[in-house]
Amino acid sequence: MRRISLWATPLGSPARGFSMIELLVTVLLAGIIFAAMVPVFASALKKTSQDNFRVTATNIAQDRIEKIRTLDFIDITEDNLNNPAFADNEFGTSFVTVNGKTYNVESYVVTPAPKYKTIRVTVSWSAAASDSTTVQTVVMDPAAETVGASATPSATPSPNSTTGTSYTLVVSVTDNDVDTSYGVRVVRIDNGYNQTQLPSPQFPNATNALSVSWSPLIGGPNVVYRITVKFRPPGHSTMTLTKDVTLIDSTSVFFDTDPYH
Question: Strand, helix or coil at 42?
Fold first, then answer.
């Protein structure tokens, strides 16, 4: 017969635990493992932060694009889009989020054709070239649908373009801040223009009491003129204002060229 022996710990004998050396080895190994994992955690945290920055930057750029698309076509210029004072402080070169993070905003305007403008908005959150995002859109001149594919329109129509009468268009401004190289310009934009003639720009100043005029101009219910004035208030960048006028009678138009009064 096989004999079976059973060994048992005597009652009252203490159970064997970990020795000090075993505990030290365990702590050392855990420290080595944790130290090796720290760069992994740091890299994951940095990537998460960069992703959050990029999402915020993309949202800022998209918001700026939507605001640009609400502007008049003639007002979409780099000077305006990078001017913090333009359009009730809606534009500028920086954007600060609610958590205090500052993003740099740069807008670029490319005009491949008279009817179209390509706008690129780049938003960055550090000096590194990779820490930026860009959103792009194309804006069409609303007048292009009626102007056609020809060259620059004019205030003088072709002989059979309208049955209207000759009128006078008067333009007045607030202050003597009109750009001396651009002045005030009037361009006919409906589909009855004559491409070969273009009215000369006028320059409102103290001599003419800040008021200029064009006459004679052909008018009528379908004759539309676009008036553009560029001006530079003291201490600010050049700004552009524009108005479209249907000339059915002699007309006076006023531009407030002192937006800071």
Answer: helix
pTM of the predicted structure, to 2 decimals: 0.43
Cis peptide before 216 (omega within 30 of 0): yes
pLDDT of residue 203 exceeding 90: yes
- d(CA 65, CA 120) in angstroms, rounded, equals 8
Alpha helices by DSSP H, listed for the chain, are 20-69, 78-81, 144-147
Query: Which amino acid, 11?
Result: L
**pLDDT at residue 191 greater than cutoff 50:** yes
Give Cα 91 distance to the centre of its chain. 7
Residue 204 lies in a domain: yes
Q: Phi/psi class of residue 87: alpha, beta or left (left: φ > 0; alpha: ψ in -120 to 50)?
A: left
Q: β-strand 166-173 against 132-140: which pairing, if any? A: unpaired
Query: Which range, 20-34, 154-168, 230-244, has the best average confidence (pLDDT)?
Result: 230-244
Other Cβ atoms within 10 Å of 54 Cβ, number: 16
Range of the domain at 77: 20-141
User: Nearest-CA neighbor of 136 among 125, 121, 124?
Assistant: 121
**Whether residue 137 is found in the same domain as residue 154:** no
